[in-house]
Amino acid sequence: MNVYTQFESLLGTVTVHGNDDGLLGIWYESHARQLSDFGKQADDHPILQLTVTQLQEYFNGQRHEFSIPLAANGTEFQNKVWQALTTIPYGETWSYKDLAIAIGNPKASQAVGGANSKNPISIIVPCHRVIGKNGSLTGYAGGLDIKQRLLNLETKHHRLSK
Q: Which family, according to UniProt (predicted)?
């Protein structure tokens, strides 16, 4: 059964969506989804509690890596891209070409961008760390302002941890 919870963060209200297999998605208010899409509210579900705790630690600069079982539904290609996203180090950015190289398909930058845009697990599968080849911010489902805030947060805490 799919379940969800919500919590307040420095990015506004965040909805965490999961099931007994793992985390299915993290959604911002800007995603304009219906709560009924997520199943039943279950603030005490272990996956949701673990996710909220780790996200709060991330926002406070205390966590740079996550240990949450993931259960997002995607194609084989999307899953490969999403797995590669989890290898981008905290506080760093890659281009779409870097990501395409990481999955062993250097000519797939555009396809990688498409898979990146379908990532349902924001922050934990850090699609916000992917930028344009020229260093520009490119699309982010939560909005470019949230992407910039996440990158700024990581840059700040990355410098402090060195």
A: Belongs to the MGMT family.
- The pLDDT score that the predictor gives to residue 35 is 80
Every domain of the chain with CATH number 1.10.10.10 lies at 76-161
Q: How many residues does the chain have?
A: 162
CB contact set of 78 (below 8 Å; sequence gap of 6+): 115, 118, 119
* SS3 of residue 51 by DSSP: helix
* pLDDT of residue 162 exceeding 80: no
Answer whether residue 161 shows pLDDT above 70: no
What is the SS3 assignment for 124?
coil
Taking the domain 76-161, which CATH number applies? 1.10.10.10
How far, in whole angstroms, is CA 24 from its chain's centroid?
11
- Please name the residue ranges forming H helices in the chain: 46-59, 76-85, 96-102, 109-117, 144-161
127 is catalytic: yes
CA distance 59 to 2: 25
